């Protein structure tokens, strides 16, 4: 990684932390409030690519582990990683990587806008929802003994909110690609 | 703004090496997963709870820190009470509580600098293989803490720019511009780091 890559990784980790301070947004038609921080996985992958996006999340998880309250609502510490939802936190790293991998393959300069939107949206869903859920549910089932199908059904409550996040992340990623592209220069 | 969760003190846990404490969490946590005995889990909660709440911090602060995790554990306990037998639900709830208490105790008794030293040590094999440079991890962490206030500054500036033009400000719509404003400085920061020879070579 070049010095610029390290700076981008650090700045993006700082953005992820900052998103945790934005007030959560409640929409009438979905059961759970939308927190800006959980959008970070999709944003990191689609904006700075697979390797750097995942590295940003390694940094965030590291900060959580060493006891900095960087998660939404000022949470942090090893108890977050060892707790029942720790799988989602570890899953962020892999989610950002997969999001970036797909975005790098699907989105290129000079494509029609619509194709870029679709590419970012698919990447966000695959990495930011499917991969993160896979890690989250696996650890949840292991640590609490909840049967897999029940945990999966319980997780469905979060899907509408996560789809909205994928839309917002897609719009933001495309805005950054147009305004200050970094995805093509992937590390 | 980002104050560490470390609690000043001189308890037995404070004096142990961070690596040893992390190993303790791992071994203790794994051991608990090998038993379904209610009595063992209850004893584990009693011991770890005593360790955590005996740390030199006010009781309210100790509870406040664990609130989000305890809330999740409570919700899952109720959920599991319905889908599993109550014994199974109780065992898994107690096990989680014990692991969480111990993890919170380690977090509260270990300084960030000591954690960093352990991380640097743990990265040494990877460094020898040329995968990552331990110093870069420290550099990146420092950059995050340095530039976090700037991001809040950018956010305020965006808000005021909206207000000045009489447009309603929507936080979620500001994410794109916020990211561009922040990452635009990357080149200048990277040049400054290289100009000072901070990464050596």
Question: Could you explain the architecture of this structure?
Answer:
The complex is a heterodimer of chains A (187) and B (201). Chain A is built from eight helices and no strands. The longest helix of chain A is centred in the last third of the chain and has 32 residues, at 113-144. Chain A has helices at residues 3-19, 40-48, 50-65, 78-82, 86-106, 113-144, 148-155, 159-179. Helices cover 69% and strands 0% of the residues of chain A. Chain A is globular, with a radius of gyration of 16 Å. With 201 residues, chain B is mainly alpha-helical. Chain B has two domains: 12-122, no CATH class; 127-195, no CATH class. Chain B is built from ten helices and no strands. In chain B, helix 3 (38-53) runs parallel beside helix 5 (86-108), helix 4 (59-83) packs antiparallel against helix 5 (86-108) and helix 6 (112-122) packs across helix 8 (134-164). Chain B is extended and about 60 Å long. The two termini of chain B are 34 Å apart. Chains A and B meet through helix 1, helix 2, helix 3, helix 4 and helix 6 of A and helix 2, helix 4, helix 5, helix 6 and helix 8 of B.
């Amino acid at each position: 990684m070049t010095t610029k890559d390290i700076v981008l990784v650090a700045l993006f980790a700082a953005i992820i932390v900052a998103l945790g301070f934005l007030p959560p947004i409640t929409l009438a038609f979905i059961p759970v409030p939308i927190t800006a921080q959980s959008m970070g996985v999709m944003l990191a992958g689609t904006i700075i690519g697979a390797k750097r996006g995942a590295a940003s999340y390694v940094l965030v998880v590291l900060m959580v582990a060493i006891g900095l309250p960087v998660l939404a609502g000022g949470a942090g510490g090893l108890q977050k990683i060892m707790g029942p939802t720790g799988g989602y936190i570890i899953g962020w790293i892999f989610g950002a990587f997969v999001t970036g991998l797909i975005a790098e393959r699907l989105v290129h300069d000079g494509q029609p806008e619509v194709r870029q939107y679709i590419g970012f949206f698919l990447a966000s869903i695959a990495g930011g929802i499917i991969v993160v859920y896979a890690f989250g549910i696996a650890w949840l089932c292991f640590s609490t003994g909840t049967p897999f199908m029940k945990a999966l059904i319980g997780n469905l409550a979060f899907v509408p909110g996560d789809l909205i996040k994928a839309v917002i992340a897609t719009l933001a990623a495309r805005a950054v690609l147009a305004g200050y592209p970094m995805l093509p220069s992937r590390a | 703004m980002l104050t560490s969760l470390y609690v000043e003190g001189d308890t037995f846990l404070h004096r142990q090496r961070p690596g040893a404490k992390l190993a303790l969490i791992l071994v203790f946590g794994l051991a608990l997963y090998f038993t379904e005995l209610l009595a063992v889990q209850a004893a584990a909660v009693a011991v770890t709870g005593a360790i955590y709440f005996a740390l030199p911090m006010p009781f309210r602060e100790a509870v406040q820190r664990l609130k989000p995790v305890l809330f999740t554990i409570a919700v899952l306990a109720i959920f599991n009470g319905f889908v599993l037998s109550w014994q199974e639900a109780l065992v898994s709830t107690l096990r989680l509580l014990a692991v969480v208490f111990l993890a919170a105790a380690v977090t509260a008794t270990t300084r960030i600098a000591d954690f960093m030293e352990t991380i640097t040590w743990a990265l040494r094999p990877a460094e020898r293989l040329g995968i990552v440079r331990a110093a870069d991890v420290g550099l990146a962490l420092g950059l995050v803490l340095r530039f976090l206030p700037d991001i809040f500054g950018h956010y305020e500036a965006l808000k005021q720019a909206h207000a000045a033009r009489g447009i309603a400000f929507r936080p979620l719509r500001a994410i794109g511009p916020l990211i561009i404003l922040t990452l635009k400085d990357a080149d200048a920061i990277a040049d400054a780091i290289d100009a000072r020879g901070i990464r050596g070579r």
